[in-house]
Design a protein that fits this description.
126 residues, alpha+beta, 5-stranded antiparallel beta sheet, 4-stranded antiparallel beta sheet, 2 helices, 43% strand
Length: 126
């Protein structure tokens, strides 16, 4: 694993296949996968007595906006290069410029749909 800062807001994380890293991040920070394929697990959430821990797979060119603050796990499924934008600037960074509102709101909705389908399978359909 290798990391380097390109500016005050963006960090490049390079991982070899099979490597994983824990990164502390804040809600609304943006990840852009430049190359490869990764599995991302955000900080777990609780809803009542239910643990909400979703895993997201990102492939080359995909963006993801973090839905919660905390420690996330990034696992490289292939050799990968990831840009992590911490959003601590008032001006849009290169990663933020690539992110459209549709892409940033799509992932939380997919996560909610996945959770609801899992909840229904476990509690209502069994």
């Amino acid at each position: 694993m290798r990391t380097r800062d390109i500016d005050t807001t963006t960090t490049v994380i390079e991982l070899q296949a099979g490597q994983s890293v824990y990164v502390q991040a804040r809600r609304r920070e943006v990840l852009l996968l430049q190359s490869g394929c990764i599995r991302l697990q955000e900080s777990p959430d609780w809803l009542g007595n239910t643990f909400l821990g979703s895993r997201i797979t990102l492939t080359e060119g995909q963006l993801h906006q973090l839905s919660c603050s905390g420690w996330m796990t990034i696992e490289a499924l292939q050799n990968s290069t990831l840009l992590h934008d911490n959003g601590k600037t008032k001006h849009k960074t290169p990663v933020q410029r690539h992110a459209t509102q549709a892409e940033l709101t799509e992932k939380p909705l997919q996560r909610l749909r996945l959770w609801l389908s899992q909840f229904m399978q476990r509690h209502l359909l069994s």
